């Protein structure tokens, strides 16, 4: 019984090292290292080559290296009996909250704007209390971001697919309440899971429902955003700009028009990055559970997509 770490584009070595430290004697392969697919029962994965898992007849579990599982679920060839898990980790929630807070403050106090101006000119800024933050997605990450912004005196509302209650947050749910939620949001933060329902949700019709001058922050997935709709709405002056950490193609190609938009701030998918040493305990706990045949933790519902 062996484990496969499969993460093309992400160094597997820190994961292998953390697994061996936590569970001495564990048999781990780092893809594409030579291994017998029949031996693998547990895979730890980030953006695996599509279709590869059908060659692993004894695979029982695929653990995502991160909070999101869209990169696993998008592969239709993963057998139905394979359990999929995600990472739930306090440090990821804190990191994403800090990152979003930094982006919001940078936007409202025009810090990058002034930096790029290279001139001694000041422009009017809005105060924290004047902004209405709208968070889309009130799962673990969305709730943590909401709490952090509330602590920093922001007005926060949130939207989710199903009703949620969060202390201090004005919550909305479902298609019916989306417009009401958007009408008020001067800063819109996308923290939705990527599912067929949420793909392309950040589009022109959606942006039109936001107040003029609204600002977009996407720290979820690039596929949530219709890129040319964002550019059009910025060009028309309806949106004041955007901070994007995630993209349809990563790394973002050098020739992509986003690079030439001063009103778009680009970061290279760094909002929260899993520390293998911090989460190895939950991965090994699930590995043991799989061996014992008991229920795994942090499993996702494939039908829902998260
Ligand atoms: C990052 O994008 C993650 O899913 O953890």
Structural notes for this entry:
- The protein is of the alpha/beta class.
- Helices cover 31% and strands 18% of the residues.
- The chain has helices at residues 13-22, 70-73, 90-108, 111-117, 140-151, 174-184, 204-208, 227-235, 276-292; strands at 2-6, 28-30, 40-45, 61-64, 83-85, 132-136, 155-160, 170-173, 187-190, 214-218, 239-244, 264-266.
- The strands form two sheets. The chain has a seven-stranded parallel β-sheet, sandwiched between helices. A five-stranded parallel β-sheet has the order 2-1-3-4-5, covered by helices on one side.
- Strand 4, helix 2 (70-73) and strand 5 (83-85) form a beta-alpha-beta unit.
- The two termini are 27 Å apart.
- The structure holds glyoxylic acid.
- Residues 66-68, 274 line the site of glyoxylic acid (GLV).
> What shape does the CA trace take?
elongated
| Strand portion | 15-25%
Give the averaged pLDDT, no decimals: 97
Q: Total number of helical segments? A: 9
> Helix and strand string, N-terminal first?
EHEEEHEHHEHEEHEHEHEEH
Total number of beta strands:
12
Kindly report the CATH topology of the largest domain: Rossmann fold
What is the name of the CATH superfamily of the largest domain?
A: NAD(P)-binding Rossmann-like Domain
Rg (C-alpha, Å): 21 Å
**Helix fraction?**
25-40%
Described by its quaternary structure, the protein is: single chain
